[in-house]
């Protein structure tokens, strides 16, 4: 039951954080681009729960859920949204460029597929150093149409790199339906053609995601080479806050909402898990989010005198 509670708490944290970000964006307290993770929480919670502290995570521009699940403090993530110096990227990255080396979280990448070669590089470094670590690389199904997808999977398989490729197939690359972008729709099968162990997972079922991530990481740690999980999920909100969302039918969204990963886990936990316990989790998360917002509002912007800092390394060679 504790394992279930931990997964539920993490999904609720991500969901409520994203909903608050939507409110803050609408009131112009958060600016720039904002891509929300609502509906996909089972993927981040399930996969990251199977990683060790020294493993690495590489994310996409829809990165808030991954960062929170990885343990990046919510205060630091929210401050980054506000562009404040206390943010995990000192306010320089914003929503799409969360980064926290201390938690082994290496972006936040705005370019579609941009995290794939980064993940391969991290994994190769671990191999050369003799470090038994896994690199979890999250990316959307739209990245499977990019050249680096094929190049990186080929090299990862050839060099047996310890990468867990996590394809979050939410059916739409921005506004382009998956079926209109890919002639062959089975991404797990495509990955297996490069020699990777790969399979599809119900990405709306956090327990199925966790079990698949456990199986994959055990194989990678045992020297079995890279694995790919095609996590079939769905985002309940538009691609970004700028998106008028005219490319999908509202009835489709409603059908997928009936597969809400939070609701599904709560039902699995019944009757041992009560509404009062769920209310306690919600209250705990609400306090955490309120604190994150308050500290972000009170934090300072980076001083103008520091704007050229970090352009070159401060470490002498």
UniProtKB/TrEMBL annotation:
Q: Which reaction does it catalyse?
A: N(6)-[(R)-lipoyl]-L-lysyl-[protein] + pyruvate + H(+) = N(6)-[(R)-S(8)-acetyldihydrolipoyl]-L-lysyl-[protein] + CO2
Q: Which InterPro entries match?
A: DH_E1 (IPR001017), PDH_E1_Alpha_Subunit (IPR050642), Pyrv_DH_E1_asu_subgrp-y (IPR017597), THDP-binding (IPR029061)
Top-level taxonomic group: Bacteria
What EC number(s) would the UniProt record show? 1.2.4.1
Gene Ontology molecular function terms on file: pyruvate dehydrogenase (acetyl-transferring) activity
Q: Where is the Dehydrogenase E1 component domain?
A: 10-300
EC main group: oxidoreductase
Q: Which Gene3D superfamilies match?
A: 3.40.50.970
Q: Which cofactor does it need?
A: thiamine diphosphate
Q: Which UniProt keywords apply?
A: Oxidoreductase, Pyruvate, Thiamine pyrophosphate
- Which Pfam family is one of this chain's hits? E1_dh
Q: How does it assemble?
A: Heterodimer of an alpha and a beta chain.
Q: What does this protein do?
A: The pyruvate dehydrogenase complex catalyzes the overall conversion of pyruvate to acetyl-CoA and CO(2).
Q: What is this protein called?
A: Pyruvate dehydrogenase E1 component subunit alpha
């Amino acid at each position: 039951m504790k394992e279930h509670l931990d997964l539920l708490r993490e999904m609720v944290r991500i969901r409520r954080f994203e909903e608050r970000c939507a409110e803050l964006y609408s009131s112009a307290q958060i600016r720039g681009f904002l891509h929300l993770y609502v509906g996909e929480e089972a993927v981040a919670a399930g996969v990251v729960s199977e990683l060790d502290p020294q493993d690495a995570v590489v994310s996409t521009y829809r990165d808030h859920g991954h960062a929170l699940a990885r343990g990046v403090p919510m205060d630091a993530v929210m401050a980054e949204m506000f562009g404040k110096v206390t943010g995990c990227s000192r306010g320089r990255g914003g929503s799409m460029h969360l980064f926290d080396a201390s938690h082994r979280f290496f972006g936040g990448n705005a370019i579609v597929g941009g995290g794939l070669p980064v993940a391969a590089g991290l994994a190769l470094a671990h191999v050369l150093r003799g470090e038994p670590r896994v690199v979890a690389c999250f990316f959307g199904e739209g990245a499977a149409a990019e050249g680096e997808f094929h190049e990186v999977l080929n090299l990862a398989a050839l060099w047996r790199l310890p990468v867990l490729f996590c394809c979050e197939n939410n059916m739409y690359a921005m506004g382009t339906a998956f079926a209109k972008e890919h002639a062959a729709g089975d991404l797990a099968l495509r990955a297996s053609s490069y020699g990777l162990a790969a399979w599809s997972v119900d990405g709306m079922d956090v327990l199925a995601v966790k079990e698949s991530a456990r199986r994959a990481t055990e194989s990678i740690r045992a020297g079995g080479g890279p694995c790919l999980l095609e996590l079939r999920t769905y985002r309940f909100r538009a691609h970004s806050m700028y998106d008028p969302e005219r490319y999908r039918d509202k009835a489709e969204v409603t059908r997928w909402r009936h597969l809400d990963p939070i609701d599904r886990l709560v039902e699995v936990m019944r009757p041992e898990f009560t509404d009062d316990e769920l209310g306690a989790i919600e209250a705990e998360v609400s306090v955490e989010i309120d604190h994150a917002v308050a500290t972000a509002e009170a934090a300072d912007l980076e001083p103008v005198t520091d704007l050229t800092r970090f352009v070159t390394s401060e470490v002498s060679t």
